Amino acid sequence: RLKRSLLERLVRYCHFMQDKVLDEEITTVSSAQVAAYAELDESQVRKDLAAIGVRGTPRVGYRAADVVSTIRDRLGFDESYKAVLVGAGRLGGAIISYPGFAKYGLHIVAIVDSDPRKTGSMISGLVVQPMHRLGQIVRREQIELGILTVPRASAQVTADRLIDLEIKALWNFAPIWISVPDDVHVRNEHLSVGLADLAYHLSG
Amino acid sequence: RLKRSLLERLVRYCHFMQDKVLDEEITTVSSAQVAAYAELDESQVRKDLAAIGVRGTPRVGYRAADVVSTIRDRLGFDESYKAVLVGAGRLGGAIISYPGFAKYGLHIVAIVDSDPRKTGSMISGLVVQPMHRLGQIVRREQIELGILTVPRASAQVTADRLIDLEIKALWNFAPIWISVPDDVHVRNEHLSVGLADLAYHLSG
Ligand SMILES: NC(=O)c1ccc[n+]([C@@H]2O[C@H](COP(=O)([O-])OP(=O)(O)OC[C@H]3O[C@@H](n4cnc5c(N)ncnc54)[C@H](O)[C@@H]3O)[C@@H](O)[C@H]2O)c1
Ligand SMILES: NC(=O)c1ccc[n+]([C@@H]2O[C@H](COP(=O)([O-])OP(=O)(O)OC[C@H]3O[C@@H](n4cnc5c(N)ncnc54)[C@H](O)[C@@H]3O)[C@@H](O)[C@H]2O)c1
């Protein structure tokens, strides 16, 4: 299992190779160029890429297309996963229309919400469904990921329902740490870490 | 300067102490309890707290209130900073109403947007201002932080304008890596890292 900090660095290298290199039609790139872009030591870049079996050629560097395809394959971006988004509010609406989900193999196939005024409305091509249909949707579509954009007070109870439906992973945006069984993966996207980072830098 | 990974762990310890401990009126907590909550080694917890000068008492543990006040003080949460949010769309609206900004000393004092249909409307008690007022607002209010919730295509040009106005830090939510001079701190809040983390766990 790759550590989370390594995963985050590999995503950045992948971005660099895709955005800066393939768009400008450069075929090879040096570890120094990647290191400068990612604000890291060259030795860290070489170590990270070696961890997924990618080696550069001395004086030539890394072949960009090879690095991208190895990272995508190793991190599972070429497979396809289905997600349901719960909570069709402001943040939910912004996430549904976020570009790039498909680049990582993730497809939001359903949106549900507890507010009867929202059900039946259309967001980015999907009709908002009522909560009582959640079970039927998750089973029929074989959904593996639940995205939680509900208020803090509803996050745990919504997670519990998805866990009962044997969801494999949860992406929680509500500002609360939800508890789950060991076999469910949870990623919390809390603004509090960003707030702390900024406060720390502004206080310096 | 504290490393970012240490900063993120200290925020989690602070959450634990505040949410679990002060609410339940427990005064001391052991490194084992903190480690279990944060899914880390006990030795990592002890090392992190020692890095900011907090030591536990053998067989008693850490005094929760002391840990919270030391973390808050060391990370600058008790100071006060002003922010302007640019881009009063779905995500901007969700961020403005996010609870807890003030807990980190951050106060959003102005919202601006380029869409004439949005200027003049009210969001969470603030009137949306037109872009031509940005300079005047940043100078008058002595704003230190710019929050970018504009589309990808407008992110760099918006950042450049805020840098001209001598903003100290940028919190970028648009899915693009913006370039800034060395004396400006940028925090990117990209969903791509979360997407990669989830795709990786679903593929395993
Ligand atoms: N992590 C981040 O980046 C970030 C940023 C902003 C907001 N947030 C958090 O995201 C969440 C959503 O914020 P928002 O501004 O979109 O709120 P919102 O009020 O606009 O949307 C919440 C939606 O959830 C629905 N809902 C409420 N209870 C529900 C339940 N039990 N089951 C199903 N649906 C339910 C509501 O009907 C509404 O449509 C909040 O918890 C907020 O704190 C996170
Ligand atoms: N990181 C995350 O968590 C996350 C989640 C969802 C969306 N996003 C990103 O956040 C951004 C906003 O998404 P959204 O769904 O709120 O979009 P939106 O279209 O609802 O809102 C964008 C707002 O920016 C304004 N705007 C456009 N160009 C501008 C400019 N040059 N100057 C000032 N204002 C300008 C528009 O008038 C609009 O009000 C996008 O870049 C999106 O990709 C990030």
Folded structure, characterized:
- The structure is a homodimer of 204-residue chains.
- With 204 residues, chain A is α/β, with parallel strands linked by helices.
- The first copy, chain A, folds into two domains: 4-74, Orthogonal Bundle (Arc Repressor Mutant, subunit A), CATH 1.10.10.10; 81-193, NAD(P)-binding Rossmann-like Domain (Rossmann fold), CATH 3.40.50.720.
- The first copy, chain A, contains eight helices and nine strands.
- Chain A has helices at 4-22, 31-38, 42-51, 64-75, 90-96, 134-141, 152-164, 191-203; strands at residues 28-29, 62-63, 81-86, 106-113, 122-123, 126-130, 145-148, 169-172, 185-188.
- In chain A, β7 (145-148), α7 and β8 form a beta-alpha-beta unit.
- The model of chain A has no long low-confidence stretch (mean pLDDT 92).
- The structure holds nicotinamide-adenine-dinucleotide (NAD) (2 copies).
